[in-house]
């Protein structure tokens, strides 16, 4: 592979990969991780000490928690996905990005949109639908940037010099296509001024549309998108091909087909038709198969490269993320069973489940990928492998503690709310059950602090790796794949 | 073998791949979501469900703005314990005028779908301004600013009602014209309390399923035991 130091943009040969936008997106993603998780820590602290919003609207739990979820999913998550998609699509197609200026527009447009969007959430602009809280001006901006993302991504694929489209691109492609569909339909609304709109859908119909969106934002962004990351960076890093090509085909199409149906498990025993709930539950159980097929494919790909785990913190993160992926995609279908959901619904168990996915799977695979990617972008070794190893243990400890605290809180909430005494009256008042959550919430805050300390190390480590360096220019291989 | 051969063609053609993803991912939505959009009975209001009056509407928009739905559900599930704790289970038609729906996904605080009429306006005022003054262990945020701002801030209430009217909510022109006057002198906290007091209130006054309630329907008659039917907050609040 021809690697040469770029003297400057003007001198750059036309035939090199466009990686500077990748570097920018990776660094923005790290900043969003810091901001979003700091907001998460603060709202966790507010559940322990409710007065620490000091009577300020913008520090109030309802607004700050919304900022937390948006900053980590759409700031941290999407920036990482966009950056790694731009990086890997060039390498798997053996061509530089199509429309590199548009790629810069995606990068800058997304960051500015999320920044302004985040501030609007603090100002109380809220569409009221979970994970789709940004108001209509931002919905339009998101759609525009997303279409540009699609043009750059599929444009690059269209001009590829390798005939087969590699599996990571199927997943990134599904992310782009399905999220566009979900976002546009779920955001349909009638505006009333800049800061307010009313959903086109009402009541039970709105609920069904919202969870079709909400569950598949998890499905195609937090699962599918990050599987794209996995399918490129895991084999690259383990230096071994994907274990089973056929399994990846079956897993991809069954995943794409089945995920869409699972949304109604968020509405069990709610006022929607019974058949919709039951179908949602069955398809959630079916989803276990493609989820675990991918996990098996990943684990078998690493098998044989286990000795690398001893020395390479980046690979450790990616392998651990697979374990949490397996855990979360097992727990999800279990929680979708109606008789389990009776206990888990509305409780902190859900919060624990989300974080076993978000911290254990999404954040860990992203950290592993960044530790692998940033030294390659800079053409220099990682500043400190030791710090990355410490980060690994902090991330693992923080995630485990978080999940345990929320399991404790959630299962006890669920059971105590439903508990009836021998004459059929409620055993406990709501406020007493709520008060008994205090130790779990304190433990969760501690878990968050541990995890966040690790992210600080990551930010420092990557900053020191990037400091004083430029993104190196890498040219595609000379031979074509055709 | 043939399947793999077929797939080789798909993965060599970006247009086919895009089309395939779109098709395969759309099926679930077409079969499962689309029928619900055309099922009118899902959004046919129950006999007691009326469009929000101006102060309730503004109150609901404040509820959304402050993210109350992050911690409070508005969906009583048809389970014995929930019906005992909160009241009659939620019907689809009750949300017919809810854009967006606010059923929620988390109960850090209690469900609010049947909160109307359970506490006095004055209790709500104290509770919103300083929750721990009436519920000592509460971890709810305080909302002092709601008492300091007029309810007619932000987009004009007539614009809001017109938008909803366009979406099919049966507001008359006279109602819309009279809306600003209905808000005159009200603060945001008054609007939010009006909204909360309207939640499930028609049921409390003798709506459907009254028989399924175990506790007397008026606040004054409710048992004072926190372990009993009125398990929302502190027992003293019921007095």
Describe it for me?
The complex is a heterodimer of chains A (482) and B (239). By secondary structure, chain A is mainly alpha-helical. Chain A is 70% helix and 2% strand. Chain A contains 15 helices and 4 strands. Chain A has a two-stranded antiparallel sheet with strand order 1-4. In chain A, a hairpin with a 5-residue loop joins strand 2 (189-191) and strand 3 (197-199). With 239 residues, chain B is an all-alpha fold. Chain B folds into 2 domains: 1-38, no CATH class; 45-219, Orthogonal Bundle (Cytochrome Bc1 Complex, Chain D, domain 2), CATH 1.10.760.10. The N and C termini of chain B lie far apart (75 Å). Chain B is built from 9 helices and no strands. Helix content of chain B is 41%, strand content 0%.
In brief:
Chain A is mainly alpha-helical and 482 residues long. Chain A has helices spanning 20-46, 61-93, 100-122, 136-158, 167-186, 203-238, 245-259, 274-286, 288-302, 313-336, 338-344, 348-378, 385-418, 430-435, 438-466, and strands at 3-4, 189-191, 197-199, 473-474. Mean pLDDT of chain B is 87; it is low at 209-239.
Largest sheet of chain A: 2 strands, antiparallel
Helix content estimate of chain A: 55-70%
Q: What is the CATH architecture assignment of the largest domain in chain B?
A: Orthogonal Bundle
Largest sheet of chain B: none
**CATH class assignment of the largest domain in chain B:** Mainly Alpha
The strand order across the widest sheet of chain A is: 1-4
If you average the pLDDT of chain A, what whole number results? 94
Strand content of chain A: under 5%
How many distinct helices of chain B? 9
- How would you name the oligomeric state of the polypeptide chains in this document? heterodimer
- DSSP summary, beta strand count of chain B: 0
CATH topology of the largest domain in chain B: Cytochrome Bc1 Complex, Chain D, domain 2
Q: Which word captures the global form of chain A?
A: globular
